[in-house]
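seq:
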Amino acid sequence: MQGDLQLTDTVILYDRDFGVSIFQNFRGYDNLRDDAEWLLERTSRKSRGFLMRIVIKNGKRGIWIGEYTQGEKQIGRQEFIFEDSAETVSRMISDHVNRKISEEDLLEKIRIENLRKHLNSRILRDFKHYYCPSHRFLYECPYVDKIYSKLTEKYGKDKRIPYSLVAEEIERIETCDDVIVCPLSVSNLLERLLNLNRAFKTRRLGEIKFITPDFIKLL
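struct:
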């Protein structure tokens, strides 16, 4: 399929541990796999993930996705997507290249969760974050609101709540399938509570106040 494709010069790398990197004005070998592997060899901050690049075939824009695994500098699985939604994603990337939208806006539009809505890709579906992305946890995690509602309904606000009971509520949640380490399931219990408190405050739900080593209050 490579022979009749036109390659664009922007490559986006999604890494499980290190997040998203955008490489513009990329000049390689005009070969998707060779270009991707050349880039991987020269990228030190990587664990496992995939690269994405706009391709054009017969005037139609599409997306190429190539996956790399832990410790490898080679592309394993690859996919070509030419459905209408792929053209939508490619336009977003082109808008950034042409300075119509900022990098911050682009990164928001092409978050993994958004790409999964647009692109029918097994590589995207199989991708796992090592640690839940901060924005996703603070603003979108459904368990934060659920835990807050349960705690306030059961214990009320501004009342002493045993530390252990809050821990039990947190332990009841099921972690997301595409995250290896959830901020609410880290091994250190205090860190779980601090993460939960940060999400409460970010969403302006309330705040956890530590009043003794064994008790907290919800404000």
